[in-house]
From TrEMBL:
GO terms for biological process: phosphorelay signal transduction system; regulation of DNA-templated transcription. Residues 1-35 are annotated as: Disordered. This is DNA-binding response regulator. Residues 19-28 have a biased composition (Basic and acidic residues). Residues 182-247 form the HTH luxR-type domain. Pfam families: GerE (PF00196), Response_reg (PF00072). Transmembrane segments: none annotated. The keyword Transcription applies. GO terms for molecular function: DNA binding. It comes from the Bacteria. The keyword RNA-binding does not apply. The modification 4-aspartylphosphate is found at residue 88.
Length: 252
């Protein structure tokens, strides 16, 4: 696999990613795993070239399309129906936040979106996560971290860089919090669902939550699905954002 991405930026990858071993998605007809289909959206050709070189070298991944603006990315993603999109948060015409919103709103089975950014605490990253992105990557991330991030987001049973997401939520959630939202959330969730949500915000995977609560993995999966449905969100990242914004989880 190629070495680190040669990409603009001055930050390194947060060091709290969960490692996973499962590769690929199940092919139609049950013929075994197929490569993850990826679309790259970034206005810098050098960045797209670096991403393609790293991800395209993986046997369980296939780069099926590229876009240089958000306006190009939205129809391309709708047409190609990839599994994962790497979306630059700052692009001309339509930025990565609006492009993410449009993609997730306009597809019955939308892809997972990873926003790519230079600065971890950028408010634009937080807005992209609120818009539905499943996680973010810092530019100049190591090749191994990039590959693991794509696989982790595709699997969707744990949070990508949980500590970094918590820091973002803690920094920005107070600006948008509603006064009685925490009580409303508690009333909406069962006691076990509240316990699961708290452990999700701590970055635990389904397997780790099962160990902590001394229940089966299938039970945890059911509770996670219940939390997402009751909060009206599509994945763990948005659940964590919602927990911070309503005050269910406090910073610190």
């Amino acid at each position: 696999m190629p070495g680190d991405m040669t990409m603009p930026g001055d930050m390194t990858m947060p060091g709290d990613m969960t490692t996973r071993q499962e590769h690929g998605h199940e092919a139609p007809g049950g013929d075994g795993p197929r490569p993850l289909r990826l679309v790259l959206a970034d206005d810098e050709r050098m960045v797209r070239t670096a991403l393609r070189a790293i991800l395209g070298a993986e046997p369980d991944m296939e780069v099926v399309g590229e876009a240089s603006t958000g306006a190009e990315a939205v129809p391309l993603i709708r047409a190609l129906r990839p599994d994962v999109v790497l979306m630059d948060v700052r692009m001309p015409e339509i930025d990565g936040i609006r492009a993410t919103e449009q993609v997730l709103a306009g597809m019955p089975e939308p892809p997972r979106v990873i926003v790519v950014t230079t600065f971890e605490n950028d408010a634009h990253v937080y807005d992209a996560l609120r818009a539905g992105a499943s996680g973010f990557l810092l530019k100049r991330s190591g090749a191994e971290d990039l590959v693991q991030a794509v696989r982790l987001v595709a699997r969707s049973d744990s949070l990508l860089f949980p500590a970094a997401v918590r820091r973002l939520a803690a920094r920005h959630a107070g600006e948008r919090a509603a006064a009685d939202a925490a009580a409303a959330l508690r009333a909406r969730l069962s006691g076990r669902e509240r316990a699961v949500l708290r452990l999700m915000t701590a970055g635990l995977t389904n397997a780790e939550i099962a160990d902590r609560l001394e229940v089966g993995a299938a039970t945890v999966k059911t509770h996670v699905a219940g939390v997402l449905a009751k909060l009206g969100v599509r994945d763990r990242t948005q659940a964590v954002i919602a927990a911070y914004e309503c005050g269910f989880v406090r910073p610190g």
